[in-house]
Amino acid sequence: MPTAIAVTSSDLVLPPHDRQTPPAVVQPQGTLETSLIGMHTLIEQHGYVIALHSSSDEPELTRRLHTVRSVLESDRIALLGVDLPPLGLALLAQQLRQLSVCDFSPGVLASSVRLLAHYIYAGALLGSVAKLDRVPVTLKSHAKSWLPGARFAVLAGPRPQLVRLNGADQEPPAGPEFGTRLLVAQGPQPPSDWVTATLAPAWQVQGVATVPLPEGSTRWWGTGKLVEFAAGLSDVSVLYQLVSSVRREECHWCGLELIGDRCGFCAAPLREPESDPVRALPRGVT
Prior knowledge:
Order of helices and strands: EEHEHEHHHEHEEEHEHEHEE
Structural class: alpha/beta
Shape: globular
Number of strands: 12
Number of helices: 9
Largest sheet: 6 strands, mixed
Radius of gyration: 21 Å
Strand order of the largest sheet: 7-6-5-10-8-9
Distance between the termini: 55 Å
CATH topology of the largest domain: Hypothetical Protein Tm841, Chain: A,domain 3
């Protein structure tokens, strides 16, 4: 069985691209006993679990996840907080689900989260930025939020950007320089169709898919007048090539494989290569 990819709510589970993509597992949010039984079952069935959550989640949710891992005393659970908006997090979970059926070890898969997140362009079209605190907002932009018909294109990652849209020829935020598929989720009060009519062509996306708006999006962006979007790689062969191109190391603490500078399971940093003891001796000493 492939490594299990777990998320904290069902609205972070996007439809699979094909029959080979396994479903994500939603962690139960009932009693502690329910959470323990659910996680234990996952470990028994899959061997390893990668549990994704937003770094902006409520502290109670994060504490529950860490409590479950502590009580089970398992080193087979990777708890990874991701600094992405809800739709971007859902896209990341989908990419991990695609890669979980490849020949990557659990350690490589978990430590690839930071790499994959860097290639996700996640943002939103907002009717107001007055309550937005996830992306830097100038005082001038705050003031203009109160003007009738105000619209803002905001990119949360990989590099924060904020553009006030005051005309049809307004340049959108800088987008990816590689082929992506764009996910679009409209709020109950969408400001306009600017994302599909203007942003998608400007970013030269290879496809557009409409998905339901995650429940946490309104809180994350600070307004219900929004259209959330996330663009990322969708071809599993390209995702595989991206991850496999990074040098693999062995975690000095838990022994799992990793890429990058930190183990996804035990969070131990990559050990610096030891210096040559002969070269480290003072001059003249042999």
